[in-house]
Amino acid sequence: MSAANESTESAWPAILTWRAHDDSRMESARVQLSGNRIKAYGRIVAAAAATNPSFSASYDLVTDESGATKRLSLSVTLAERDRQLSIARDEENMWLITDHQGQTRASYEGALDVDVVFSPFFNALPIRRTGLYRRTDSVNLPVVYVSLPDLTVKQASISYSSLGPDSGDGIKLHSPVAQTTITVDDDGFILDYPGLAKRI
C-alpha cells in the first residue's frame, strides 16, 4: 500500500495536496467526511502557462448526505482583478448561479456534481457519490462545468468506467478536456490524473 493510500485511511479531516505534472500548478484541500457528505475548503495556485494566465483560486464546497453538490463558492484572483462565483442546488435539483453579471437558474440536465477545470479534487465527487471506486461499472454523468480562471459555467458530460478496485486498472475518464485513466485511493480521492496532477 502506498503512503498516499495510508494518508487518507487515517482520521478525518485530512489535507490532500496535488502538484501538476509540469509543476505549473498546485492544489491543496482540507476535506471533512461524514458518511457520504463532504465539506472541503481548497486553493489552486497556477503559474502562467500557454492555456492560462497566473491565478489563484479558492473554493468552499458542501455536499448533501448522498455526496451530491449542495453549494460551491469560488473566488479567483488575477493580476488585474478578483472575481467570485456562487453555485447552489435547490430541492428541485435546479442550480442557481450567481456571478458578477447577476443570477441564472438552470437544470444543467439534472447534474448532481460540479467539476472545476484544473482540479483533481472535484473528480472525486461523482466517483464517491456513485460508489464507482468500490465496484465495476460505467457511468455517463452531466456536470456543472466551471472553467478557471474566467469562472464561466456550462453543462458538460463526463464518463467514468471502472473494472473494480481489485483490477489495478484505475478508472477510465472521458471529459471535455481529457481521455485518460486515473487512479484513486481507498476513499475514492484522486491519487494520479495523468496530464493534470499527482497527489504528493
Strand-helix topology:
Layout lengths: L2 H7 L4 E7 L4 E10 L2 E10 L8 E9 L5 E9 L4 E8 L5 E5 L2 E5 L6 E4 L7 H6 L6 E11 L6 E11 L7 E4 L4 E6 L5 E4 L3 E3 L1
Parallel strand pairs: 9-10
Antiparallel strand pairs: 1-2, 1-15, 2-3, 3-4, 4-5, 5-6, 6-7, 7-8, 10-11, 11-12, 12-13, 13-14, 14-15
Keywords for this entry:
200 residues, mainly beta, disordered N terminus, Glycolipid-bd_prot_put, Glycolipid-binding domain-containing protein
Average the pLDDT over all residues and give the rounded result. Answer: 92
From the spread of the alpha carbons, the general shape counts as globular
The succession of helices and strands, N to C, reads HEEEEEEEEEHEEEEEE
Rg calc = 16 Å
Q: What is the helix tally? A: 2
* Total tally of structural domains: 1
The structure class reads mainly beta
Largest beta-sheet details = 15 strands, mixed
**Reading side by side through the largest sheet, how are the strands ordered?**
8-7-6-5-4-3-2-1-15-14-13-12-11-10-9
In the predicted model, the low-confidence regions spanning at least 5 consecutive residues are: 1-10
Number of DSSP strands? 15
Task: Kindly report how far apart the N and C termini lie.
Answer: 15 Å
Beta-strand percent range: over 45%
Helix % is: under 10%
Organism: Mycolicibacterium sphagni
Pfam families: Glycolipid_bind (PF06475)
Protein name: Glycolipid-binding domain-containing protein
